[in-house]
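request received
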Amino acid sequence: MKTLKVNLPGREYQIDIGLNILDKQLPEAVKLNTAEQVVVVTNTTVHELYPDFISNVLANSGVKVSTCILPDGEKYKNLETLSLIFDFLMNISANRQTLLIAFGGGVIGDMAGFAASTFVRGIPFIQVPTTLLADVDSSVGGKTAVNHPAGKNTIGSFKQPEYVCIELAFLKTLPSRELKAGYMELLKHGLIQDAEFFNFTQQNTLEPLNFDYLKEAIFRSCEIKGRVVEQDETEKGLRANLNFGHTLGHLIETHAGYGKYLHGEAVGTGMLFAAFVSWRWNELEQNEWELISNSLTQIMLPVKLLKLDYETFRNLILHDKKAQKQAVNFILLKNLGESFILKETSVEKLWDEFKLFAQKFPEIISLE
Ligand SMILES: NC(=O)c1ccc[n+]([C@@H]2O[C@H](COP(=O)([O-])OP(=O)(O)OC[C@H]3O[C@@H](n4cnc5c(N)ncnc54)[C@H](O)[C@@H]3O)[C@@H](O)[C@H]2O)c1
Ligand SMILES: [Zn+2]
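response:
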């Protein structure tokens, strides 16, 4: 098992990563928390694959456990589904001594975290991620959110978990497409902060699963993210670098309809675009651009976008229908392993680059 701490004043928490560790680690963490009752928030898919898994693990912990099962999918990551968690909590007379456990991928983690940050003004929560994406990214750092029809993750809060238990065994049932999508956020951490880590990922294949490799890669990914979050929890500056690839990524998710493309897939396309712009604007060297594009395109699936014109592009990027703003903070690469925030980037210039990008990579992104 590998262990990592995120040190935030008064809210330090531990992340454990390993194979077959949950049975021992989770009951200990729950005991430390002195909760009166535990509510597991999960979805139908995870519940079918792992029925009553967390309740069984906690069977001898002397704490009452109940399970709130939500519908599965990004398209349910909204206020309506969130209210199902609140209904559940009210029904079982939950209070400030109730501990939530998010058991699922990033969608479950983001929604359970948001519920934990607002129910009776805040209750503790633990993350038990079950997807690679949640292992390497969303379970760490305390961003919680639901989507608005007009903008991805636009309603949310910052709420750090009490503990994160990354049980690698859950990855055995994860479909290949989901694994690849999660891998994109892992590569992101190398691209923006750590060239050596990026090179380390390139020496291995994702499938078949290699748990020693995954343990190390997830650890390093969480470490990079954790260190950034320690310095800038609420994204006053530095943390925005973690949004590398997300400007176009979120546009793709919203424009295509939530769930059509996986978050990691959309972000992968967004990262390729951001690297392309970095190269075109003379930040990134040709050889590094080639290395990055070769690596990303190998695991990317094509994205098809319907009816995208400049107006729609602008509105989606700015979440603003009134055309007042024309610029956005955009994350670029200076080098492989070093990103920076280009403040006030003209959306019109990004649109020009986007059209070129779509011409150069018709197999990756096509426009109607
Ligand atoms: N909070 C953050 O910092 C942060 C960071 C990155 C992404 N996110 C969010 O995370 C979400 C994406 O997360 P995701 O990729 O985990 O998607 P997801 O939660 O939708 O999970 C992907 C699919 O895999 C299924 N699944 C989960 N565990 C499984 C398992 N072990 N075996 C088989 N199937 C399993 C799920 O039911 C779902 O169908 C997005 O909404 C994104 O915005 C948040
Ligand atoms: Zn992301």
